[in-house]
Design brief:
The chain is an alpha+beta fold and 167 residues long. It has 6 helices and 2 strands.
Length: 167
């Protein structure tokens, strides 16, 4: 999407109005927030993951059962996926960055990723891969890793490892 084009809002038309909403299937004004356990399958890290998003609040038509998937519902499902897979949540990533007193830009530079990538993780737009989740955990946990990566981000040749000659 071009940067000057506004992002599409995933809210139903007139979503700022109080409930009940009009159903897009049966056209009745019977869509209300309902708490359910939602079984789903998500493609994550190249494989299909089945899990249940427990206790999510989703607008559902009480007449025909049509579900309305808003941004808030997506956030709840993504949080349930992170919990199911044991991944750091966006809130945990943000809290660790704050705890270290670093900016997102500095963390991204040290990790060797684009600042926009880190921003997408923190702002709930994308869930990080298992490998990047592990990398984040190591980065946040061990000061030696942060020190070593800081040296590499300043001078990429400073810590270059050399392989011994082949035997």
């Amino acid at each position: 999407m071009p940067p000057d084009e506004p992002k599409r809002d995933k809210r139903p038309r007139n979503a700022e109005r109080p409930f009940p909403w009009r159903c897009r299937q049966c056209h009745q004004e019977t869509v209300v927030p309902t708490r359910i356990d939602y079984p789903t399958k998500v493609n994550y890290d190249g494989r299909l993951v089945s899990f249940v998003a427990k206790g999510i609040e989703i607008p559902i038509c009480q007449n025909c059962g049509d579900k309305r998937f808003t941004l808030e519902v997506d956030d709840q499902i993504n949080a349930a996926l992170c919990a199911h897979l044991g991944l750091l949540t966006p809130e945990q990533i943000r809290a660790e960055i704050d705890r270290l007193g670093l900016s997102q830009k500095h963390v991204a530079e040290r990790l060797g990723i684009a600042e926009a990538t880190l921003s997408r993780w923190v702002n709930k737009q994308v869930i990080q891969s298992r490998a990047m989740d592990n990398y984040l955990r190591v980065f946040f946990q061990f000061p030696e890793v942060r020190t070593a990566l800081a040296a590499v981000s300043i001078d990429p040749g400073a810590s270059a490892m050399t392989m011994p000659d082949a035997i």
